[in-house]
Input
Amino acid sequence: MVFFQNIYHFFKMSKQILIIEDDEDILQVLETVLIHNEYNVKGLERTDDIIKSVEQYKPDLVLTDYLLSGTNGGKICQLIKSNKDTCHIPVILISAYPELAVSLGHFGFDAFITKPFDINVLVNKIGELIN
Output
């Protein structure tokens, strides 16, 4: 039984999550929660080249806010999903303005979570998408 628990722990710990969130407080909460749930996490307040960031970090999932300084999460999602090397990576889009994101298009995201969000809902959705 211990063997199976160790394998489960190894595979969960090896999962990488890239977070793009320009609100430092929310970014810290997300990092803390996901690390507590045994994920490896890289948080960015911004990225000038999402494909380069994805290639460097090699995430199993990208979590991005919709409204970001200088860009938006929808555009980030579209760039990830339109690149042949990154299109397989699940993307979760989060926003306090769900009507804005929905009205502007789907962007190819795999899940959409409204702020404020229930941490358990977010963690469960991440688990569904990367396991």
The first helix runs from residue 2 to 13.
